[in-house]
Specification:
heterodimer, A: 176 residues, 11% strand, rod-shaped, B: Formate dehydrogenase/DMSO reductase fold, 74% helix
């Protein structure tokens, strides 16, 4: 049971999210910047956000931009086509706003959704061709990982001491 | 809590997490004889459907039973039926996600998959019904040399936008939900092919705090966008009918009535698919009586709304004073299509009343039977609305009786085979339950197993 020294940092594994999140706090108290710490989790980690003072996810702006663009496109497409090929029927106006609402709504959702997908890919930096340093397949299975990015020997020793003190596990390929 | 207790809790949790991985990934093992036999049957039925379609393409749409005034019949019935089936997928995954309904976790992957495959099936029917399939692109707004655009006043064009948006967003929602689970499959893959397949599909997902942060946010927005979409799509489908002045169609109740009906049929199809899946892959710990009871209550609720809509329809027809409206509904209850009308009322209104009894709601056998009846009833609902209304329009000399031909029946059977083929492929290639979310919100039986491990 101990943290592992890897080429680009130090890795520790924990059984629970609470332990891993606590490790992040303690590492910060010991002078490690949050940007140098990565937490790997096999479950969606809403609680972890409380431990990291990171900027709010900018996904919202992408979704909003997509939605607005879709809404405008829906309006522009329908109105442009009304006048590009006017259908004069029974003296009624060529354009009809209620009709455009359906198209505007559908395109708002369509582009809002597609922009959200794009936001996940851009901000989560996927597709990724290389594995992030410190990742281990068991972090998608049963363990929570904490990786401290440091290439200096002193930093490695210090991070290793902190993680060992918190009961970090060494990750093995086969679960014990 | 002492360190020792924490470690014990942690070990128990890790053990349960490994069990979730093992159980769900077991569905991806090489197919057995049962799967192969089902696939063979499905492919045979699909081949018959394809032969019927080729026959129709070569001979013309006259090989169907369509004749004036009944120019929409079984093919459009199938379209509306399959779009309806697609509905509960996003209801369960998006709306119940926003309501934080925990029972959705075990069944939402199946329902999302069902949504995508059902839309893929539904989308075939407007094309098949066209007869001259190669002209379908007339619906697409693309710059052409005559500047002849689709007429946006037509509900059929709204439908094109609604269905294509629904298909795209449902597919995105399904795929986004799958990414962390495909990563699990990648990390446990034993063959090179699977490692490559899952490695590519998981996009290099590693579950870092930063990835989860953006993922959770985007998933929430997707759910928020998909929720009104669910309600809009079947409303738009209902306007294909309600915007026309055909008696039996021209009604303001159609949008909510169709949405409730769609969710009703979709939940029934989820039950029809989930129960055999649970049995075949021994997933009893993940889908138990708790989930079945919740799904049954959802079915009962939507059945009540549908039942109410049927009664309101009859009431408004009588209250309108319009002889045409009254004639259509009289015919539906006692006329030449009464047999179809009463199948619809029996399957959708009376049989689901049995769900008031808990014993029925928690019985695997009866729930399967009820879900099959609802599927049949909802298909007939679409048939009755479309065919019976057209067969009994304004002028008595125009009234007619429609009989489907073997071509339409073969294409209908083929559509069920097409849907099941994709579903069978899916359960063998991708995780059919949300592994990451199941670990977060353990189902009741696994929670108990974890507690027992902690106390041991």
């Amino acid at each position: 049971m101990s943290a592992e020294l890897l080429e680009r940092g130090v890795r520790g594994a924990f059984y629970t999210l609470e332990e891993a999140a606590h490790a992040v706090d303690v590492l910060e108290e010991n002078g490690f910047a949050q940007r140098d710490v990565t937490l790997f989790s096999p479950i969606p980690t809403a609680e972890v956000e409380e431990h990291f003072v990171r900027p709010r996810s900018p996904v919202r702006y992408m979704t909003l931009a997509g939605g607005i663009l879709g809404c405008i496109t829906g309006f522009a497409l329908t109105y442009w086509t009304f006048f590009a090929w006017p259908l004069h029927v029974g003296g009624k106006p060529v354009s009809s706003f209620p009709v455009t609402v359906v198209i505007m709504f559908e395109l708002t959702v369509l582009l809002g959704g597609l922009f959200s997908l794009a936001a996940i890919l851009i901000f989560s930096r996927i597709p990724a061709l290389t594995t992030k340093p410190g990742y281990h397949p068991r972090f998608s299975e049963d363990l929570f990982g904490v990786f401290v990015h440091t290439s200096e020997d002193e930093g490695k020793r210090s991070a290793s001491r902190v993680l060992d003190g918190l009961g970090a596990l060494e990750v093995r390929d086969e679960p014990e | 809590m002492s360190d020792r207790t924490t470690e014990k809790t942690g070990r128990a949790q890790a053990q349960v997490f490994r069990r979730v991985n093992r159980d769900i990934l077991a569905t991806l093992r090489l197919p057995g004889a049962g799967w192969a036999i089902m696939m063979a049957v499905v492919l045979t039925v699909l081949a018959i459907g394809v032969i019927a379609e080729i026959h129709m393409l070569k001979t013309g749409i006259g090989v169907t039973g369509l004749e004036p005034p009944i120019m929409w019949a079984v093919l459009i019935t199938n379209f509306v039926f399959w779009v309806g089936i697609a509905h509960s997928g996003t209801l369960i995954s998006a709306i119940l996600f926003l309501f934080r309904a925990q029972f959705r976790t075990a069944v939402y992957r199946v329902s999302e998959t069902m949504t995508v495959f059902a839309v893929m099936t539904a989308g075939l029917f407007p094309l098949i019904h066209l007869g001259r399939v190669w002209y379908f692109y007339y619906l697409v707004p693309y710059p052409n040399e005559r500047f002849l655009w689709p007429n946006f006043r037509s509900p059929l064009v709204w439908d094109f936008f609604a269905i294509s948006t629904y298909f795209t967003i449902s597919s995105v929602f399904l795929y986004v939900g799958l990414i962390p689970d495909i990563a699990v499959a990648r990390d446990r893959a034993r063959t090179r092919f699977r490692r490559r397949l899952y490695g590519t599909l998981s996009l290099g997902w590693q579950g870092t705090d930063s990835q989860w942060r953006h993922y959770n946010r985007a998933y929430l927005f997707l759910a928020g966008l998909a929720t009104p979409l669910v309600l809009s799509v079947h409303s738009v489908v209902s306007w294909d009918f309600a915007m026309a002045i055909v008696p039996g169609w021209h009604s303001t109740i159609f949008a909510p009535y169709f949405v409730a009906g769609a969710i009703f049929s979709g939940v029934a199809m989820v039950i029809t698919l989930v129960l055999p899946l649970r049995k075949a892959f021994k997933l009893e710990d993940y889908i138990d009586e708790y989930h079945l009871d919740r799904l049954a209550k959802l079915l009962l609720l939507t059945s009540s709304i549908v039942f109410y809509s049927y009664m309101v329809e009859i009431w408004t027809a009588w209250y309108s004073g319009s002889p045409y409206e009254r004639a259509v509904f009289w015919d539906r209850l006692f006329g030449q299509y009464a047999w179809a009308g009463w199948i619809m009322y029996t399957c959708n209104c009376f049989i689901p009343l049995s769900l008031w009894f808990k014993r029925v709601r928690t019985s695997w056998f009866w729930m399967f039977i009820v879900s099959i009846f609802v599927n049949i009833g909802m298909w007939f609902e679409r048939f009755v609305i479309i065919v019976q209304s057209l067969a009994h329009e304004f002028e008595p000399f125009g009234w007619d009786y429609y009989k489907p031909t073997w071509v339409e029946m073969a294409i209908t059977a083929g559509s069920f085979a097409w849907f099941l083929m994709w579903f069978l492929l899916f359960i063998k290639f991708l995780p059919s339950m949300a592994i990451a979310e199941l670990k977060e919100l353990l189902p009741p039986r696994l929670k108990r197993a974890k507690q027992e491990l902690e106390e041991a």
